[in-house]
Structure formats: structure tokens, C-alpha cells
Design a protein that fits this description.
Length: 374
């Protein structure tokens, strides 16, 4: 039986409730922009503890909408090179230029020192990615830098549903937070995203932008796209949100199992979570020794043991063909990312993982590593 790298989780009673609500939606004829979307937004804002939450149809749309509010056309936005390509893509969609920054080896999150090196008179803001579900430990330092330089601070919280630092939720740490509800994420709505903010003006503009630029009176007041989530997705998201705390607790339990099972294996290193952070464990990354070929190891785990694995993210953005061709980035630009990310393997992480699965994965990992070392 395949051990999937990620898997959405639906408690049995939740499935029944979702089906009942979707049936009600279909009978109502109100398939978009309806009461379930409004309830999902309200409850998500309550959970994150922001004044506003605006649902959209993807995490990419959430970033795009938020960035358009900040009017970045012709300006620069600092983005970690270690992120999914949606993050820099949306800077370009909104008329800006992504400027990449390197990562910190011990967290895989953006390096504040490299942020400082990349600041210029054209810098409009900074996007911080809470990679794998770890809230960037330097959020306070980066927020203070943004305040000092009059820059916006945007959280890409696509991995970080339920993650916290110093008791404060991801998505409530900057000017806005952007979440993804893609099926692999900590919680899902099938496809979908959410913007969280305490900025009323941003929230109102976001609601217009997601509705093709129309305001509440259906008058076009701005250029926008159809970025709306549908009611069926909102139903799924609402019910997933009701179980999000359970999901995060279970993922932390799985992480503890991994930590115990993998301790003492010399060929791998584990990433430590600071004591003031609650990790959401979208992924469980480990770092491999230099002699281990990550791709070969992943292939062996899949082909011989039926274990799926992942990575975050290799190649990094600056080594993606589009950015190399259009922005002139290349090898050697971000030495820490290039050194570390090709050695990061993500083990299966989701709420269906059992302790027995973890032991099996550990044994398969050790056997595979031994094959490469002999």
C-alpha cells in the first residue's frame, strides 16, 4: 500500500456534514458568492484573529490580489528564492519585479541579512514565506525593518494554517496573510485561498478585485478578475476549519514520532522548531548528508518501498528556467539555497500517518541510505 507524501483528511462525520451542506447549496441555486462563503470568511478571521478574511479561488489569487492593493507597478518586492513559483509570479502579475533573497540553513526561511542587502530605493515590500509550516522565526525583526523603511509586509502562509509564533497566528503578523487550500495543504477546500488582514481598505479592494472589479452595487470600479471561490469549496473549507486544531495537533504528534524514530541516524539532520513557535507541519523536511543523492533516494523509496516523498523547493526560484531566461539569475547567486535545498527530503506528513508507518519509513530510509553508502 502506498504511503502518500500528502493526503487530505476528512473525519467521517465531517464527510456527512459536507455532503448535507453541498446538497443544500445545490438545491438553493446559490452556487457562488453566497452564505457559506461569508460564514467561511467570518470563521477564518475569528480563527486567525484578524478583522477581515476574504476568500478567493487559490493561494496564488490571494497573493495576486493582495499585491495589487499595494500598487507595486514599477517597484521591487523582496521574495525568498525558496518558495513555490506562485510567490514571485504574482509580483510580476501585479506589475512589480521580484528580487530574490537567500535562506537561513537552519530554518529554510528567508535570511533577514540578505533582505537588508537587497533593499533599494525601488523596494516596496517584503514577502515572508512560512516554509513547511514553520513561522519565520525572524518575523519581529523583519516587521521592524518594514516599519523603519515604510515597506509592506506580506505573509505567504500557504503552508502555515494554525501555525503560531509567540502565541500569535500566522496570517496576523504583517499587513496581510495569504493562505492556500490546495488539496495537499494542512486544510483544504479542493481549490481555494484566503486573505487575512486588519486593513479595511485592503479588504474592500480585495472583494472588488476578486469580483472582476465590481463593488457591492455591481459597478466596475477597478480592473479585476474572477477570483471567487464557489459555495461548494466554501462548504468544504468551513468544515475543514472546524477540525484544523485537530489536524495541527495530529501533525505535531507525527513529527514527534519522526523525531524519536530518526534520532541517531548519522546520515540525516533534523530541523529544530524554536520553543516560541507552533509548527503546522505541512511538510516534514530532513537534511541529507552530502554523499546522498536526494533524487535517487526518493526514487528508491518510491520504487522499492512504495513511499512517496517531496521537497521544498528544488530547484529554487532563481534556478527556474523562466527566471534564468528573463531575470538573468543563475547558479552561484544564492549559495545557501543551492547548497541546502538539493539535500532536503520531505517525508510523508498528513493526519492518516500512523506510528507503524513512521517505523516503516525509518527502516526504508536507513536501508536505502545503506545501499548508497556501500
Amino acid at each position: 500500500m502506498t504511503i502518500f507524501s500528502s493526503l487530505p483528511y476528512f473525519p467521517e462525520q465531517s464527510l456527512n456534514n459536507i455532503l448535507d451542506d453541498i446538497k443544500a447549496v445545490l438545491k438553493s441555486g446559490k452556487l457562488t458568492d453566497g452564505p457559506y462563503t461569508q460564514e467561511f470568511e467570518r470563521k477564518f478571521a475569528e480563527y486567525v484573529k484578524t478583522e477581515h478574511a476574504i476568500a478567493v479561488n487559490s493561494g496564488t489569487a490571494a497573493l495576486d490580489v493582495a499585491l495589487r492593493y499595494f500598487k507595486i507597478a514599477g517597484r521591487e518586492v523582496i521574495v525568498p528564492t525558496n518558495t513555490f513559483v506562485s510567490t514571485p509570479h504574482t509580483v510580476i502579475f501585479a506589475g512589480g519585479k521580484p528580487v530574490f533573497a537567500d535562506l537561513k540553513e537552519d530554518t529554510l526561511c528567508i535570511d533577514p541579512e540578505d533582505i537588508r542587502r537587497k533593499l533599494s530605493p525601488k523596494t516596496a515590500g517584503i514577502i515572508v514565506v512560512h516554509i513547511a509550516g514553520l513561522v519565520c522565526p525572524e518575523m519581529k525583526e523583519i516587521r521592524e525593518l518594514c516599519e523603519e523603511k515604510d515597506l509592506f509586509l506580506l505573509e505567504d502562509a500557504a503552508h502555515a494554517h494554525g501555525a503560531m509564533i509567540d502565541g500569535k497566528m500566522a496570517g496576523a503578523l504583517g499587513d496581510a496573510g495569504c493562505f492556500s487550500f490546495y488539496p495537499t495543504k494542512v486544510m483544504t477546500s479542493g481549490e481555494g485561498g484566503m486573505i487575512t488582514t486588519n486593513n479595511l481598505e485592503l479588504a474592500e479592494e480585495a472583494r472588488c478585485l476578486r469580483a472582476i472589479g465590481q463593488n457591492a452595487e455591481r459597478k466596475a470600479v477597478i480592473l479585476g478578475h474572477n477570483w471567487r471561490i464557489n459555495e461548494m469549496g466554501a462548504v468544504v473549507g468551513k468544515h475543514q476549519l472546524e477540525h484544523l486544531e485537530e489536524f495541527v495537533i495530529k501533525r505535531n504528534e507525527v513529527a514527534k514520532w519522526y523525531e524519536h524514530a530518526l534520532s541517531g541516524i548519522e546520515e540525516i539532520s533534523l530541523f529544530k522548531t524554536p520553543s516560541n513557535i507552533r509548527h503546522s507541519y505541512y511538510k516534514y523536511p530532513i537534511k541529507l548528508d552530502d554523499f546522498i543523492d536526494r533524487e535517487q533516494l526518493a526514487a528508491n523509496l518510491k520504487n522499492k518501498y512504495d513511499i512517496e516523498t517531496g521537497h521544498i523547493y528544488y530547484p529554487p526560484c532563481h534556478l527556474q528556467p523562466y527566471y534564468m531566461q528573463n531575470f538573468g539569475t543563475g547558479y552561484g547567486d544564492f549559495p545557501v539555497a543551492e547548497k541546502v535545498l538539493n539535500k532536503v527530503l520531505c517525508l510523508p506528513m498528513h493526519c492518516s500517518i500512523t506510528k507503524e508507518n513512521v517505523i516503516y519509513i525509518r527502516d526504508a530510509l536507513v536501508s536505502s541510505i545503506n545501499e548508497f553508502s556501500n
